[in-house]
Amino acid sequence: MAASPKTQKTAGQGRKASGSKEKDSGSARKASSAKQKTTAGSARKTSGAKQKTAAGSAQKAGTAARRGATGAKPKASGAAGAKPKASGATGAKPKASGATGAKPKASTASKKASSGSKQQASAGSRRGTDAKQEKGIYVYGVLPADIELASEMTGVGDPAGQVRIIRSDGLAALVSEVDVSKPLGSPEDLAAHQQIVDGTAAEVPVLPARFGAVLPSEEAVAEDLLAPNEDEFHDALSELDGRAQYVVKGRYVEKAVLREVLSENRQAARLASKIRGADPDATRDARIKLGQIINDVVTAKRHKDTHALGNAMEGHCVASVVREPTHELDAAHVAFLVKTDEESEVEQVVEDLARDWEGRIEVRLLGPMAAYDFVGSVVPEG
């Protein structure tokens, strides 16, 4: 795509900080990674030409798509040093008899000193080679090649390297250098990875890499990741152009949902009455049975409320993926692929739904973020 300076986008100015905007219970709480503008954003798109696609979703890279609440679930697949020889110690020459014996000793000492110097130099060379081998290239994601960094920013690791771009055949990888001898996974590392990837996705299409994806060199990024997957990555990025992921998560208010269960299920109400104030050991079986009933009823409610969320979002998303519950009180957990210019409509839908569910379900809206649920990771495990 040709560069068009007149239509430059600054992704860094669109980065949203996670948890920056949360509303009280009863209305949609926005835990967005894209509301607070920062100067440490990600990338700037230098092309004004956008490829519009009518297809409903992005392709999945490496992971199976899950059941969607609305729309189709698309898929996109996604990715010595030389050993210097140490100089050997020079052996001492046999002593000669007579007065000339002193000279061989001096010569031997000189050779030993020379040999030791060579050994030290060789060891230093090995240490230098080993130090180079400790470095790796951390990959955040794959983007179109017509982007540039909006500002300087540091990535993951200690010390944190400067984020930069590696280009190859119309594609670009967002990377930074890391010391692979030091483990990654600190809260700072996780936050940096998320902010860089999601901040980029708020402005330009990005195929995210999993956290901790490290390749041995820049050449490996270009030759082993970008070049072999050029067509596949191009197609997936084309599908994501002008789109980003949002996640809607609802959680039942415990007391409210228990009241619903007991009012709607007579058997549950009888068991609850039976065990109230009774000896726990004597009512053990009744307690187990009540727990099973509550779990089954909540599961049925979760399906119903997830369907209601899907219906409410119909016409406002390109595709959706229902996530598995992470808590027994989860009411709905759905990822939506949304056109980036429809953020306000999505917020309104979620706020309306939260108002209908007030006192029963607490709702949060997260995003925009990278399309994790629709394209998977461009760098596979292992």
Structure description:
The chain has 382 residues and is an alpha+beta fold. The chain has 2 domains: 35-79 and 133-241, no CATH class; 246-372. Helix content is 36%, strand content 19%. The chain is built from 9 helices and 13 strands. The protein has helices spanning 102-133, 187-201, 218-226, 230-240, 254-264, 266-275, 284-313, 343-356, 372-375, and strands at residues 9-10, 29-30, 43-45, 135-144, 147-149, 164-168, 171-179, 207-208, 214-215, 243-252, 319-322, 330-339, 361-369. The strands form 3 sheets. A 5-stranded mixed beta sheet has the order 2-13-10-12-11. Strands 4, 6, 7, 8 and 9 form a 5-stranded antiparallel beta sheet that branches. A 3-stranded antiparallel beta sheet has the order 1-3-5, with no helix packed on it. Helix 5 (254-264) packs across helix 6 (266-275) and helix 6 packs across helix 7. It is elongated, with a radius of gyration of 30 Å. It starts with 8 loop residues before the first strand and ends in a 7-residue tail after the last helix. Residues 1-42, 46-119 and 121-131 have low confidence and may be disordered.
At a glance:
The chain is of the alpha+beta class. The protein contains nine helices and 13 strands. The protein has two domains: 35-79 and 133-241, no CATH class; 246-372.
Helix content: 25-40%
- Give start-end ranges of low-pLDDT stretches: 1-42, 46-119, 121-131
Biggest β-sheet: strands ordered side by side in the sheet: 2-13-10-12-11
The biggest beta sheet reads: 5 strands, mixed
Number of domains: 2
What's the total number of strands?
13
Q: What separation lies between the terminal Cα atoms?
A: 33 Å
- What global shape is seen? elongated
- Computed Rg: 30 Å
Structural class: alpha+beta
Strand content: 15-25%
Mean pLDDT across all amino acids:
75
Order of helices and strands: EEEHEEEEHEEHHEHHHEEHEH
Number of helices: 9
